[in-house]
Design brief:
With 319 residues, this protein is mostly beta strands. The protein is built from 5 helices and 20 strands. β4 and β5 form a beta hairpin. The strands form 5 sheets. A 5-stranded mixed beta sheet has the order 1-18-15-6-19. A 5-stranded antiparallel beta sheet has the order 10-11-7-14-20. A 4-stranded antiparallel beta sheet has the order 9-8-12-13, covered by helices on one side. It folds into 2 domains: 143 residues, no CATH class; 136 residues, Alpha-Beta Plaits.
Amino acid sequence: MWQYTTETIINSEKGNIKGGKRFDVVDDKLLIEGVGSFDLKNIAAVYKTPYLASKESVATITIPTTDLAANDTVRLQVWISEEGSIRPELQNAFLMKKLPFQFEIELGVVADVAEELATAAMKVLNKKGAEKLFTVSGTDDALTITATDCYIRINEVRVDKTNVAPSLLGYQYYQKVIAVKASDKGQTAIVQGREGNGTVARLVKNLRIPTSASLNPFGSYQGGKPVPGGEYDQYLIQYVVDRSHMGHQVIGSVADKSMTSHVLFIEKNASAAFATLLNEASIKFDVTATADADRDVKTASDMATKEAKGDEGPKPTKR
């Protein structure tokens, strides 16, 4: 049995096949420039997975103000991890030892606690040369933390206060802190992000470029690379034929077959033309649904339940 897989990016329906096409059906053969010629009778199956946009993790928290007073020291802590990617800038104590990013303020106007926390946090996160892993915004008592890409997960958010002056603060003082945590007095929800499918970031991360075999010593041509901002549908063609160079050898009662898979990432405009071509050639294809539901939602009651069981720490790092 002979098996292999090809992966090809197609940015346009225009190509060098007769009539200026990149793909066409001629004499009962599906022709795809840069991939091959496929007898329609030997196409075992075709599957399509539509483009799905990536989404960043978002945490929202409403900070109760009844326990706050002007000049209180308020602390924001954010625990993050990474899923689906391993970047050097995240291989540090914040990730490996599960330490939080931490921001402290001396509260001015109680009603503006979220806005003041966000302003202080962004002064740190916007420092020149720093890797901004998330952003913080706030209006009145509503605070929002948003990851900067789809691979960052926000595991926990906490807001605490103490009436000890900022100049005297130390770790020991926070042992006596009056908590305004997300899991008890606050209201918070964390909606985790997703990588998506057919995005440029996913293609660059997971595919070899050029994506199809090339004998060109000067590298791949532009058509084999994802276009910035492109949205790609994924097609999988499964192709099965007898291994003719083996003389159609039959081992026992099983004929020797060549079973190959050909993955096409086709930009959405060209994808519509490709789907039309398949339909006109009576090539049926199954569409794999891409779940658009939120992957994970953590509410205040969820985390309160975990704390009741003695689990007050953030989620373990996912790999």
